[in-house]
Amino acid sequence: MELIQRNPQLAAYLAADDVVDHRHPLVRETADRLASGTTDAYSYAKAAYEFVRDEIPHSQDAGDPRVTWRASDVLAERTGICCAKSHALAALLRAEAIPAALCYQRLADDDGSHPFVHGLVAVRLPGRGAWARIDARGNKPGVDARFSLDEERLAWKVRPEFNEVDYPVLYDVPHAAVMKALKAAPDRPSLWPIYPTEL
């Protein structure tokens, strides 16, 4: 699949805003701590990915009712759904001047019911001409996502027979439909009925 930058300017994928708030002190502190144990952009990106994947539980897996959406809040509260965790990973990458995009899949339950939008990050490391999608939602039985730039190791591969979709667009800011739901929901049980089923 060919990935398509929504914004042609690579600098847009380094920007800070109220969601991917990589100038926030907690994001900066976390990025500095992760960077101190790395030697280059690749090792930093892998460390940031594994930190978000492994140290911030997916709220559904953990049974945590809180809804987070701002990167700094995801880091502070140590919880979030896939899209929120993607915001945190994008912020940590951008904090170290690594272009990071937000991208999405349309997935469904095992039987094809209950479609939902799943959030990912695409990273573009120095010296590489291509974006690579990575999925930091968190592993669990049946899910084994890995940091890989050459061969995708996402949590799930789409199943076209269930109308699942890999969306090719790389967003410099979170998709408006996702943000509308995350900001409106007072807790996770309230989130799912209003969460987008497609983009």
Automatic annotation (TrEMBL):
Query: Pfam families recorded for this chain?
Result: Transglut_core
Q: Which residues form the Transglutaminase-like domain?
A: 29-136
Which SUPFAM superfamilies does the record associate with it?
Cysteine proteinases
Gene3D superfamilies linked to this entry: 3.10.620.30
Name the record gives this protein: Transglutaminase
